[in-house]
Amino acid sequence: MTKISSKGIKFCIDCGSLNVNLLKNRCKNCYIKAYPLIKKKKKISDIKICKNCSNYYNGHWLKPKNIEFYDYLSEIINASIDNFIEKTDNIVLNFEFNTTFDLLWSNKSFLLTIKAEKFFPEFNEKLSTTIVLPVKVNFTYCDNCLMVKRGVHKVVINVIRKKEFSNIELDYLFDLIENEINKIKDNELNAYLSNYEIGKHRIKLFLGSIKLAKNISQLISNKWGGIIKDYNIASKKSLDKGKKNEKYIININLPEFSSGDVILINDVPYFIKSIKKDIVHLVNLKTKTTTNLSMKKGFEYSLIKSQENLDKFIFISSYDDLIQIMDEKTFQLYEILKSDEFLNINTNMKLLGFIYNNQVYIIPKYD
Fold it and tell me: Domain range holding 42?
């Protein structure tokens, strides 16, 4: 056994190396073995990914910023790294993994290599620790997708109208809902349509977010008009249990008409140019003047023609004071007085209109 007796000689207490830089009485190799920069946690948490929407869990469900596979998984690992390792301060972490998209979605574990580096002035160089961990991915449903799957909802919107909804209007409504969900879903996790019911005169929407429901209600009102009323109700089941489990109800009572329809007021036909909330913007088809009416104040009307049922005419010829048009269905020819909206009309141009009291009315074109 070698005896070290000389005073002032520096040596590593683990390997015995002489005259080397030391930290906690250890050389750089023995120090990093005794005090690794990172260590595997006793229990490694699984990575949770929603198999429906690909959101991932890190304390709460998060929408990934990346869609390309490598960046997507790197983002999840980077956010979840503290669930895999214990680490010292002021380190630089790098990692790599050996899985592909197909293998990841097979519910098998993949190997994650993590390397930590840190500069030590005592040794005047960087030291590193590398560990390899098996990481398991747990494919499940995030809270939102689970609620959608179970049909859970917080808000019910009832859209009510005497006039039956057309397929064009239904397409518009569901495009509107999809666009609004995409617009706010990053900040509003419950922005989803859970279910819906379509009747002749009622559309019922089941939504997960009050904010989403209010936004959609305003957009519907801006498009089709109508009066919005909202209130809370508590289910009988929740009251029996002494719990407050309220549902938010929004009723939108739409007028019988919508933009593009023709209505009769005081025996005068009016074209509905647009509707915004309770204000109806109208064109008098006799005088070609515009006016606004409030549905809250009320006015009497009857529906002459809905937009989808307007007659189609073809422009045939023009004279000094008259133009000649033909009904596309009946081939009946009509002569009507020439006015400003026909100044730039061309032969065979198609026009929309209707016949009321034996008089032909053509719908003016608006931008």
Answer: 28-140
